[in-house]
Amino acid sequence: MSDRIHIKPSEYGVVRVFDVDLPADQVKAFNRRNGTWPLQDALGADTLDPDHVDLIAVEDLDELGLSGYLAEGLGISADDLRDMRGRLDALSGHVLIVTSRAFAGQDQTLSPRAPLHLVATFTEDRPPVSFDPLPSQAARGTTGGKPAPSDAAMSGRVASIALLVLFLLVALVVWVAS
Description:
It is a single chain. The chain is an alpha+beta fold. It has helices at residues 24-31, 38-43, 65-74, 78-82, 85-90, 151-177, and strands spanning 5-7, 14-20, 53-57, 94-99, 108-110, 116-123. The protein has a domain at 5-123. The strands form 2 sheets. The protein has a 4-stranded antiparallel beta sheet, with helices on one face. Strands 1-5 form a two-stranded antiparallel sheet.
């Protein structure tokens, strides 16, 4: 595959699905071999966090299917999957699913090569942020201004002023006496 995929450091919530064109007996060796990771080389990635990469046997998904896995497991919206559902569910063998977090916020350009073939790129469905009022009455009205000082706070202020006045009187008496 000669397509290049640019990964921005700010990329978030993007899910890429690759078809892995290898026989099942070679997939395990492709995943990890002698402490190296040929998968990273096949993607052409500088940085790749294996905790955010899934190499999945499509038949292990049973009746859920790949499109169901993407919808329920990774939060891809049904609208995004609608046009790709047939193609995704027709895949067999193994697929590689790579999320944005796999690139650890590093700016890089991927150059995927055989045995990987990009099938689709999706964005996780994130609901918009809403600022609904808090349900508890205890949380209402406390951020609009300063609350009235308590009786203990007022007593402390009066006592501080009285001590300051006494200190000034004692200092005046000492000064007059000397």
